[in-house]
């Protein structure tokens, strides 16, 4: 999911390529379905935080962050009900908390965690934004317990002259973060060539988080059903032995009738134990149980 309009063939293929493993994905955008008038009405006021994104037409627009955050929350609520193994919010600049039952990679939080882990107390990090106004808006960069230098650079994707200007301003930094997912790896390499400093894109940080999450999903799918049950998050009323047996067979893919035959109990008894177990675990389906295991394993 991105904050503009899908599909984002300027972003998603490069991130998927960095993951280095096959995956099936569907794309959604927070501004999908909006016409030009609705998007124009979402332009930020002078005192509102802003986001820079792309529409399906290829046009780039500036929209109010609050408007996008509300649209994002509504779309995530819908996607959370559609049975995806994972949702990836490919953006930076949205600072709200989005609660989902489906495992969620929130681009802003991933980039925050990466930056916080890397920056030492006297570190000097240059941050490149798409819009000059975002430099004043991003006060959070000073809350990492480190000296994070904001170089007052503003770079729009594809403008080589302004990339060179940013590189000059960032020349004495130890590390450069290209903060928008709109920045490509090619643009990062151009700044590397100009500064001789390590440069990381938000795309690469998000792709790394996605790679780790997909590896965890693959690991879970290789576990025996009983091992999956062992990994269910603790809390609430524990499963009875019979409920555990039923859920183990359900996670093995058996329908209720075969579970009943395997355990030597009636089909109706299986339905009762299954319903009680699902209620205790706060899940509506086996797929949701798997997602809960993933959520409990997230750092």
UniProtKB/TrEMBL annotation:
GO MF, any single term: DNA binding
Database matches in Gene3D superfamilies: Winged helix-like DNA-binding domain superfamily/Winged helix DNA-binding domain
Presence of keyword Transcription regulation: yes
One family name in Pfam for this protein: GerE
UniProt domain HTH luxR-type: residue ranges: 232-297
Biological process per Gene Ontology, one example term: regulation of DNA-templated transcription
Keywords: DNA-binding, Transcription, Transcription regulation
InterPro entries: Sig_transdc_resp-reg_C-effctor, Tscrpt_reg_LuxR_C, Uncharacterised_AroM, WH-like_DNA-bd_sf
Position of the signal peptide: none
Top-level taxonomic group: Bacteria
Protein name in the entry: Regulatory protein, luxR family
Organism expressing this protein natively: Tistlia consotensis USBA 355
Classification lineage: Bacteria, Pseudomonadati, Pseudomonadota, Alphaproteobacteria, Rhodospirillales
């Amino acid at each position: 999911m991105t904050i503009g309009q899908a599909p984002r063939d300027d972003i998603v293929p490069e991130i998927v390529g960095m993951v280095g493993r096959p995956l099936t994905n569907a794309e959604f955008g927070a501004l999908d379905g909006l016409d030009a008038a609705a998007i124009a009405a979402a332009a930020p006021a002078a005192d509102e935080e802003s986001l820079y994104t792309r529409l399906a037409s290829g046009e780039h627009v500036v929209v109010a962050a609050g408007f996008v955050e509300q649209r994002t929350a509504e779309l995530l609520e819908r996607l959370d009900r559609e049975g995806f193994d994972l949702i990836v919010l490919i953006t930076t600049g949205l600072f709200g908390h989005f609660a989902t039952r489906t495992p969620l990679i929130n681009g802003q939080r991933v980039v925050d965690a990466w930056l916080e882990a890397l920056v030492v107390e006297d570190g000097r990090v240059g941050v490149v934004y798409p819009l000059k106004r975002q430099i004043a808006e991003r006060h959070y960069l000073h809350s990492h317990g480190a000296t994070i230098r904001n170089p007052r650079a503003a770079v729009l994707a594809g403008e080589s002259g302004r990339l060179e200007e940013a590189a000059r301003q960032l020349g004495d930094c130890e590390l450069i973060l290209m903060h928008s997912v709109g920045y490509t790896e090619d643009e990062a390499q151009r700044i590397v060539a100009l500064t001789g400093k390590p440069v990381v894109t938000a795309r690469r940080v998000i792709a790394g988080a996605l790679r780790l999450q997909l590896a965890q999903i693959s690991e879970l799918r290789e576990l025996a059903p009983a091992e999956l049950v062992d990994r269910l998050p603790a809390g609430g009323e524990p499963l009875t032995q019979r409920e555990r047996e039923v859920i183990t067979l359900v996670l093995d893919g058996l329908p209720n009738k075969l579970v009943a035959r395997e355990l030597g109990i009636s089909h109706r008894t299986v339905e009762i134990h299954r319903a009680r177990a699902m209620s205790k675990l706060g899940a509506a389906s086996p797929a949701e149980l798997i997602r809960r295991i993933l959520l409990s394993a997230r750092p």
